Amino acid sequence: xxxxxxxxxxxxxxxxxxxxxxxxxxxxxxxxxxxxxxxxxxxxxxxxxxxxxxxxxxxxxxxxxxxxxxxxxxxxxxxxxxxxxxxxxxxxxxxxxxxxxxxxxxxxxxxxxxxxxxxxxxxxxxxxxxxxxxxxxxxxxxxxxxxxxxxxxxxxxxxxxxxxxxxxxxxxxxxxxxxxxxxxxxxxxxxxxxxxxxxxxxxxxxxxxxxxxxxxxxxxxxxxxxxxxxxxxxx
Length: 235
Ligand SMILES: CC(C)(COP(=O)(O)OP(=O)(O)OC[C@H]1O[C@@H](n2cnc3c(N)ncnc32)[C@H](O)[C@@H]1OP(=O)(O)O)[C@@H](O)C(=O)NCCC(=O)NCCS
Known about the structure:
Blueprint: E1 5-9, H1 17-28, H2 32-40, E2 48-55, E3 69-80, E4 83-93, H3 103-117, E5 122-127, H4 131-136, E6 140-141, E7 147-148, H5 157-163, E8 229-234
Parallel strand pairs: 4-5
Antiparallel strand pairs: 1-2, 2-3, 3-4, 3-7, 5-8, 6-8
Helix pairs in contact: 1-2
The chain binds coenzyme A (COA).
Coenzyme A (COA) is lined by residues 27, 92-94, 99-105, 127, 130, 132-133, 136.
C-alpha cells in the first residue's frame, strides 16, 4: 500500500461513521439508522469494520474546505463458526466515482494483511456477481461456512456452545448446526456479567442437485433464493 493509504478500524475513527453509512446505503439501501447501528458495533473483537483512507501528505496540504482524509472503501470482518483461523469478509465497497482505479484491490490486499497480522489464515466471502473480481484476486470457489454476526467480548466459548446446540435435550427439537467441539474453540474470553445473547447468522446454502460449481453457475442460493457464490482464499 502506498504511504497515503491506510486501512483503519472504523471504531478508531467514529467521525467517519456517517460517511460510511452513506457509502453502504448508496450501494445496498436500508435505512441510515440500521446502517449506523451495524457500523457502531464495530470492535476489535469482531465484527470489525475497516475503512480504506487516503490522507493528504505534507506535500499536498488539504484545502480549507477539504476533509483531511477521503474514504476509499469499506469491509466488515466477522468470525467463522468452527474455523478459528478464518474470517468472513462482507460489505466490500468502493465509492462509485472511485471504482476501476485499483482501490478495490488495495482494500482487499490491506484486509488480508490486517487479518494475517491478527493471526488468521483464511478469508471467506459470498458474492452474487463479483466472483470474477475475487477470482482475479486469488479467491477460489468454496463451501459455505457459518458466520458469527455478533460476538460480544464478554461471551465465553461455553456460552457460544450452549446457544449453538443442534438439539435441545429438554424439547428434543432440532436446533441449528453445532460447531464441531473437537475443533479448536474460540479464543478464551473473560468471565462476563450476564452476556447479551449471541446473534448467529446462519448460512443458507441450498444445493441444487444438477448445478455444477464454477464461476458461471453455483449450487448455492441466499436467503431470498438468489444464486450466490461462496469463495475463500488462504492468506
Ligand atoms: C467490487 C468493487 C469493490 C471493486 O472495486 P474497484 O476499485 O472497482 O476494483 P479495482 O479497480 O481495484 O480492480 C482490481 C482488479 O480487479 C479487476 N476487476 C474489477 N472488477 C472486476 C470484475 N467485475 N470482474 C473481473 N475483474 C474485475 C480489475 O480489472 C483489476 O485488475 P488489475 O488489478 O489486475 O488491474 C467495486 O466495484 C464495488 O464497490 N462494487 C459495488 C459493491 C459490490 O458489488 N461489492 C462486492 C460485494 S460481494
